[in-house]
Design a protein that fits this description.
mainly alpha, 2 strands, about 140 residues, 2 domains
Length: about 140
């Protein structure tokens, strides 16, 4: 049974999947930083600095200055702003990943594109053609 497990782990598919998950986790950090640190501030600039993450309703009926204050007080909150920001972030991340995949596919296609066959220069007459021409010239 241990040998079967070793064989299963050693298969290429399992190892490829493990590498993919590890690289995917590292890539997630890069894309999250790209969206959070570079793209969202630009969007916030165009939207007048609107940040939906502080849009919430306290379900206990009390007023709180911030979402953090409501959570610290232990109040149940309906954090609609976080949900909206999660949707916006998802759409941005999906678009960034789409663009990256598109660029990678374009690069792959360019690398795999077969070179166009070069046109060969017209070959001169063969030795046989020259000998036939000489023979015909001598006959005249």
């Amino acid at each position: 049974m241990i040998q079967e497990f070793k064989d299963f782990i050693a298969k290429g598919n399992v190892m490829d999947m493990a590498v993919g998950i590890i690289i995917g986790a590292a890539f997630t950090a890069i894309v999250t930083s790209l969206v959070g640190d570079l793209i969202n501030p630009i969007i916030g600039l165009f939207m007048g600095g609107i940040d939906f993450s502080e849009w919430f309703y306290a379900l206990d009926g009390k007023e709180y200055a911030t979402l953090a204050a409501a959570e610290e007080a232990g109040a149940p909150v309906f954090a609609i702003g976080r949900f909206i920001m999660a949707i916006i972030n998802f759409l941005i991340i999906a678009f960034v990943v789409f663009m990256l995949v598109k660029m990678v596919n374009k690069a792959k296609a360019a690398a795999e594109e077969p070179e166009e066959p070069k046109e060969e220069a017209p070959a001169g007459p063969t030795e046989l053609d020259i000998l036939v021409e000489i023979r015909d010239s001598l006959k005249k």
